[in-house]
Structure formats: C-alpha cells, structure tokens
C-alpha cells in the first residue's frame, strides 16, 4: 500500500479518487484550501484515516512538509471557473505555477511517482486547425489560438510545463490523465463546474442548444484510471485521454428529455450565428461559441486497454449527472 498526496481534494474528480484510494487500503493525505472545504470532504469519509493539509497553488508555504513520507503525488488541483475570467492569467498563472510548485516539492522530498490531471481540452484544438478530424493523445491545443478558452490554455500550459520538468529530471515518473467532459454521480452537493451543463439543461437555463460536441467520460472511470496508473509501470511517460464517446449538446438534451419528459427541456437548436451574437453578452455562450464546428472527439481507447476496464457509457454518465443535480425521478424507459 502507498501513501498518496491528493491535491485539490474537495474537487469533483478528487473526491472519487479519494474513495478509490481508501477502498484499496492506501494511506491518503488530502490538500484543501480552507476549513470549509476540509469539512466537506470529512463529511464524506467520517470514519476514514484521512490526513489533511492546507495548501495553496499560489504559495510555497507547506508544500515541502506535505510531501514528507509520501510515495505518490496525485495532482488534481487547478482553477476551474464557471465563467471565463477577464484576464486569462488569473487561470494560467496558478495552474502552471501550482503544477511546478507541486513537482518541485515532490522531487525535493524524493517523491518520484506523479499522476497529473489534465483535460481533453489540452488536445482537441490543435495548431493545424483541422477542426473536423478526431484527435489523439499526440495532439496539443494551440495555447494562443483564437478559439482556445483561458481554461483550455491554462491546462495545456500546465501539462506542458510538467512534461518539460520531468524531461529535465528523468528520475520523475509522470503519467497524465486527460478527461473529457466529466459526468457521473456527484458525491455531495458540492460538484463544481463540470456538471453545470447538465444542470443548465434540466433547469431550463439554456433556452437554446448550441451545436457543439464534447468528449464525455464518467467520473468513476476517471478515478479508476488515476488510481491504476500510479502502480502501472507501463503508464509512465504516457498521457491518457479519457473519453467514453462524444455527445453533442442537442444529443444530451434529447436523452434528458426522454428521461425527464416533464422537465421542459428545450429542443430548440440555435444557429451558429446566434450563438456568436449571444456570446458578446453571455459568458456561457462565449465558451460555447469557441466549440462551434469543432469535432472535439478524442481517441480514448488507450486507457481501457492499458488499465483493463470498459468505459461506463456516456449516456449512463449523463443520466447519473442529471440525478445528482436534482432533475427528479427519471421514467423507467430512460434507463
């Protein structure tokens, strides 16, 4: 059994990782930014032998001590805003600096095994601007591209910084996990931004549907990949896109309308010109406008082949998210 430091432990993905690690008998040290977030995590694991440390991505304080006695660094922490920031550096600086801060502290403590959470958003907007093709783990999002969001740029730059760090320090053994849009069951009411699209659909906050697609993966599979990667020598030096299969926003709405026929989920698909016009005044549409005409599908077949599992279907992950955000009781035929 290993001692694992999990950063950003109150995050949607991280809480599922904690559950996997604890169930497997590992010793877990969890980082949080505040007492409030610590209380959220403690409420989920009241009987677990779970150690907490307070760390900040923007400060050196506490990092060296936090990694003493650790075998594996599981770095999931990164800013994930609901709306795009006015200054992209508000996301980029803490993402990049925080990743390097964690890696430097790990190396100083003799912690050489690292699993880093990135995103398919670091893959599916490449510099060749071939928007229609399926992307692979060999692709990299263009960080200063006209269609790249600040979040996508922050995650791409942070991952690239991590790979450069381990190239300079070959004793470091890095695996990167690149999830798509992460659906699935929330463990509590603090599920962050990743289930926001589902919540907007089932509550009628999206009056029209943008014609964009996204890679989709269940959070339980994302957690499984992280935990299996840390003891798999074949995963060292690799990045693993996690994608059970892409879904378009109209397709998601269609699945949810069948499951929740009384929710009033719209079937109105917005023309691209209207989404672009709305993006001027609506932050959510600004993000959506960057995905119009983009095939965001990323080949996710490497992870199940490497780690020996089958993805939970994207539709099932979507319905689990809907149940978590309070959509109500689905009709029997929706399953």
UniProtKB/TrEMBL annotation:
One GO MF term attached to the UniProt entry: oxidoreductase activity, acting on the CH-OH group of donors, NAD or NADP as acceptor
Q: Per its UniProt record, what Pfam families does this chain match?
A: Epimerase (PF01370)
Protein keywords: Oxidoreductase
Under the heading InterPro entries, the entry gives: Epimerase_deHydtase (IPR001509), NAD(P)-bd_dom_sf (IPR036291), NAD(P)_dehydrat-like (IPR050425)
- Residue span, NAD-dependent epimerase/dehydratase domain: 4-234
Which domain of life, per UniProt? Bacteria
Annotated region Disordered: where? Answer: 131-150
User: Which family is it part of?
Assistant: Belongs to the NAD(P)-dependent epimerase/dehydratase family. Dihydroflavonol-4-reductase subfamily.
Any idea what this protein is called? Answer: NAD-dependent epimerase/dehydratase family protein
Q: Which organism is it from?
A: Isoptericola sediminis
């Amino acid at each position: 059994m290993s001692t694992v430091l999990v950063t950003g432990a109150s995050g949607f993905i991280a809480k599922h990782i904690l559950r996997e690690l604890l169930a497997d008998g590992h010793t877990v040290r969890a980082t949080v930014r505040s007492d409030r977030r610590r209380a959220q995590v403690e409420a989920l694991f009241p009987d677990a032998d779970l150690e907490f440390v307070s760390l900040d991505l923007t400060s050196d304080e506490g990092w060296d001590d936090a990694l003493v006695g650790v075998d594996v660094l599981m770095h999931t922490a990164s800013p994930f805003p609901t709306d795009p920031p006015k200054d992209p550096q508000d996301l980029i600086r803490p993402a990049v600096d925080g990743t390097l801060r964690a890696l430097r502290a790990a190396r100083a403590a003799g912690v050489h095994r690292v699993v880093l959470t990135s995103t398919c958003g670091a893959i599916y907007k490449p510099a060749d601007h071939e928007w229609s093709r399926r992307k692979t783990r060999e692709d990299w999002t263009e960080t200063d591209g006209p269609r790249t969001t600040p979040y996508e740029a922050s995650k791409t730059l942070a991952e690239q910084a991590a790979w450069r760090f381990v190239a300079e320090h070959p004793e470091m053994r890095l695996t990167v996990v690149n999830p798509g849009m992460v659906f699935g069951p929330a463990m509590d009411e603090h599920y962050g931004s990743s289930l926001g699209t589902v919540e907007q659909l089932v509550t009628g906050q999206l009056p029209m549907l943008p014609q964009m697609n996204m890679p989709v993966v269940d959070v339980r599979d994302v957690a499984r990949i992280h935990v299996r990667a840390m003891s798999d020598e074949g995963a060292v030096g690799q990045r693993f896109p996690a994608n059970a299969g892409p879904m378009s926003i109209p397709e998601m709405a269609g699945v949810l309308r069948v499951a929740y026929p009384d929710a009033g989920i719209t079937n109105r698909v917005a023309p691209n010109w209207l989404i672009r016009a709305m993006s001027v005044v609506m932050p959510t549409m600004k993000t959506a406008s960057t995905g119009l005409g983009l095939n965001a599908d990323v080949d996710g077949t490497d992870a199940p082949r490497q780690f020996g599992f089958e993805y939970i279907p994207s539709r099932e992950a979507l319905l689990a998210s809907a149940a978590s955000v309070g959509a109500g009781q689905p009709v029997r035929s929706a399953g």
